[in-house]
Amino acid sequence: MSQKNRLPRGGRIDRTRPLDFTFNGQRYQGCDGDSLASALLANGVDIIGRSFKYSRPRGIVAAGAEEPNAVLQIGASEATQIPNVRATQQALYDGLVASSTNGWPSVDTDLMGILGRVGGKLMPAGFYYKTFMYPSSLWMTYEKYIRKAAGLGRAPLENDPDIYDHMNLHCDVLVVGAGPAGLAAALAAGRSGARVILADEGEAFGGSLLDTRETLDGKRATDWVDQVLAELQSLPEVTLLPRATVNGYHDHNFLTIHQRLADHLGETAPRGAFAQQLPRQRMHRVRAGRVVLATGAHERPLVYGNNDVPGNMLAGAVTTYLRRYAVAPGKKLVLATNNDYAYRTALDWLDAGLQVVAVADVRHNPRGSWVEDARARGVRVLTGCSVIDVRGSKRVEAARVAAIDAVAMKVTSPGEWLECDLVASSGGYSPVVHLASHLGGRPAWREDLLAFVPGEGFQKRLCAGAVNGVFNLGDALADGFEAGATAAAQIGFKHGASELPRTEKRVEEPSFPLFQVPHEKPTARAPKQFVDLQNDVTAAGIEQATREGFESVEHVKRYTALGFGTDQGKLGNINGLAIAARSLGIGIAEMGTTMFRPNYTPVTFGAVAGRHCDGLFEPARYTAMQAWHLRNGAEFEDVGQWKRPWYFPRPGEDIHAAVARECRAVRSGVGILDASTLGKIDIQGPDAREFLNRIYTNAWTKLDVGKARYGLMCKEDGMVFDDGVTACLADNHFLMTTTTGGAARVLQWLELYHQTEWPELKVYFTSVTDHWATMTLSGPRSRELLSQVTDIDLDRDAFPFMSWKEGLVGGVPARVFRISFTGELSYEVNVQADYALGVWEQLIEAGKPYDLTPYGTETMHVLRAEKGFIIVGQDTDASVTPDDLNMGWAVGRNKPFSWIGWRGMNRADTLREDRKQLVGLKPVDPQKVLPEGAQLVFDPEQSIPMTMVGHVTSSYMSATLGHSFAMGVVKGGLKRMGERVFAPLVDGSVIEAEIVSSVFYDPKGERQNV
Amino acid sequence: MSAVNVYEQRPSHLDGQSPLHHAGLAELVGKGSASAGIRLRERKLLGHLVLRGDARDPSFAGGVHKACGVELPVALTLAAAGETSLQWLAPDEWLLIVPQGEEFAAEQRLRDTLGSELHYAVVNVSGGQTLLELSGENVRELLMKSTSYDVHPSQFPVGKAVGTHFAKTQLVIRHTGEDTWQLVVRRSFADYIWAWLQDAAAEYGLAVDA
């Protein structure tokens, strides 16, 4: 098909660069510079989709973000599918593939139309509200029907081949919108030397100047745009962001901008200069000193009968298609207006050599300059009139124009049907107050402007131009310049006065309020007068909502769905709430608007995620021995952000076999564990010891230099929150270890108490977690092995349990701690991490004669549980005291100075003897492993809901013990030794277990102390 | 025994492995684009010491100046003399970086100068972090992709240093020359940061320097 609606001349398109594209399977051609919408219109595509509720054919209405109908799915392959694309904001590229999102089964055939005609009965206004009210069970049925029929686009089923990223920007002045006011503001702020960002959602800067017939300095307005852009580009502190929609205005002048870097270039982003993948979209996170909102205004359509038939468009959009894209979306125009500005469209239409059938102006005696221009050129201007109905099914065929009394809401003449194929309407302009309102500033109604303008701003922002209700071009330029200069000056940047371009002198008259065009019949019986095209909300539906008692604008919205949808009511909301106000007999100001929330337009998930996906989704922390673990086939477990070896399977082994083998090796020979991830905090100062007394539950006064001690740390409530071994390195010097996951919060905890409660204590804390790498040799042969590679005297008396020594291990200076988390003879070797892999490899080499076995966290867990050693966070959950853990031995009840947790653990509730207490659980069936987390009951025969008395915290099969075992908390468990508890499982089975001591292996602790 | 346990932790006869040892940066030298907008160099295995003390106490401030040859820098700044740099980390915390193998001597010099009466702390963290140096005309853009801190020269002049948010973790950013910046990266996060930097630099071209 040829571009039958393309004008031979004009427009900002390149006719020498044709671009092929496909819509609903049909091939078309557009030009470079087209939007997808303008290319569709150029090809005479009238029907773009079918409506949400009534399945009525719909065409393109607008030319910008407010477009309600042309919301398309684009993408040639499954992986490149993008839903929610407004054809008016999508630049055409060669090979673009688009399809309707709501045209099941086809936009042109009328199968759904049959349903559509009864659809109104099936789905009246208030459908959502009523179905949510009753019966809720039917919603699932309705929803399938609605979703299938409406189809609001779909997500791709394959991975997106494109990448997206984020950029953090800072500026003195962010100017939002590059129309006349925005350009002037950016110029004023930019010339002052301030750091300025100018962002605009369009394909080109200029806004309304790109298609206006008005001149600046007697020349085309675009000449001035080019001149301003050239100057802005020359200013080093000015950043221009084209194709960048400012979508969110957040607290503290933080704004999010979504820039489409490559959406105009093709299906996927091209490769860059280094053959690398370029991002398709970029989210700018902007911190701005001042924000100038120059977001412009959206034209309101008039609400008359059948105003949704394809061929009903906004007047301003018609001008945009004519002048910017050189597309005439019809031949014979009827224009309906309540203001002067829309006359520009009639004049533009004449300039294109097309026929203006008539202009219907609701005003009785309009005498503005453009009105007179139109009259002078022979246009038939029908005053006191409006279009009240339209004929045509797939395209406008005629419009009925009649005299109306807009105040009394009456039609006062029979009117006449005028043959035409395009009805352009303008009901005035609604400032784009969205960003100004994101943080709660409610827009204010200005009766003189018939518009909501930005209300009180709680942020450091200024508004300029049409968003302020300043619609006249010259005034908007001045308003913008003033706002830009003021914003810069508030930051401290000054610049002298500048000349603004000269605008045309003309008479402009006020518009007349018209939010719904009357019809002879009452609204409910008149032809459908659509208010919100995307949600099929009619004037009748809004009236019904108010009749049913919905008086708040928010309730009207939820009852009718007005303003739901991807366009968020940009086109219809003001008309809708004005109709609701009239129906309720109140003023528009009293009615107010609904809330405006980010984002202004839909945002892709890719842009939100940025590069924080795949391998960069979350930082992975590695120890110095990671390369060895990888080479030796470790499986890894996530512990916080750390990757820790979980177990080291040999060929053919599953986790159970590997863990059983590793456990046996440690109990009978020697194993090696990478323990580098444990938190390590260097503590120095003369009051270090006293600080430990106050932060730990146990006493530290008598810990000698060279010794180490296990400690429990509680919060103020007396509940355990971390544990670990702390060694005394010298009189004023300690090394604290924490759990792997608790390292950062323990350091914070120490600093918090030091800085806020005990600043008089002379002590400093420094994290050395990453400095030291730690390898644990554990097992009865560990002494023998270590002696091969160290100069330290390992004799049991010279180097006893719970002490540490300094010396060389593998030729590297080391601190060796004789502490044990397995219950076996163990040495923890600490060396500077830069040398750790070499030491580890020497130990592995030296360990060959001893069958040294690397083991992971799973084996460590089994071995420590056999000994009844707790893991904070697994066996505790912030509701467990040291006494609950049967660890009262670690509580220094006689410490002279109070310490954290002491008062908490002496409350009546924490002293109760029937609290949940940690005990051992021995399944009666030695092969059955209790699931961790399983709830425990005393009587499995009781009726549901059962009285739960505790739960399993740790549970394993033990190769050493030859049976399964577990730890768990049980109410009063410490006094229930020998009693039975039961774990009823989801599959209906029950595991019975005996309550036993939590120390299953070597209860006297002899093996670690040899 | 002294009140603090201090000893030479680095073996003199062995080569250490920096946190990015496994990345094989040395093999990448010379393989990047000549027109790369980002050049990266790991200044590895330097001596890193954390210094804590009371800056208002002249005996501490004077002692540090004397021992390091650099005055205690004020908040958010970095001071350097030759290969030694001293950076403010927090109101009572500084990072001293000295050439490889000099950290033990530096700590001893500090302790000798500051004496045993004064309350302060010196902690060797050389194994726990590394220094990445970024240069080239696009480093600022790379940093803007990575951190929400303002890196414009008017807000982040040469000589400034901050600990801040970076990608999904945190590190220290130091501005050491007009187009030269340094990152102090913790060992366990080095792999993530290296992956992030490669990705973020792809748009500008990345070259690795020895």
UniProtKB/TrEMBL annotation, chain A:
The keyword ATP-binding does not apply. SUPFAM superfamilies: Aminomethyltransferase beta-barrel domain, FAD/NAD(P)-binding domain, Folate-binding domain. Residues 527-610 form the SoxA A3 domain. Residues 626-895 form the GCVT N-terminal domain. It comes from the Bacteria. Keywords: Aminotransferase, Oxidoreductase, Transferase. InterPro entries: 2Fe-2S-bd_N, BFD-like_2Fe2S-bd_dom_sf, FAD/NAD-bd_sf, FAD/NAD-binding_dom, GcvT/YgfZ/DmdA, GcvT/YgfZ_C, GcvT_C, GCVT_N. Residues 172-446 form the FAD/NAD(P)-binding domain. Residues 916-1002 form the Aminomethyltransferase C-terminal domain. It holds the Pfam family GCV_T_C. Belongs to the GcvT family. This is Sarcosine oxidase subunit alpha. It comes from Stutzerimonas azotifigens. The lineage of its organism: Bacteria, Pseudomonadati, Pseudomonadota, Gammaproteobacteria, Pseudomonadales.
TrEMBL record, chain B:
InterPro entries: SoxG, SoxG_het, TrmE/GcvT-like. Pfam families: SoxG. SUPFAM superfamilies: Folate-binding domain (SSF103025). It comes from the Bacteria. Gene3D superfamilies: Heterotetrameric sarcosine oxidase, Probable tRNA modification gtpase trme, domain 1. This is Sarcosine oxidase subunit gamma family protein. It comes from Stutzerimonas azotifigens. The lineage of its organism: Bacteria, Pseudomonadati, Pseudomonadota, Gammaproteobacteria, Pseudomonadales. The gene is soxG.
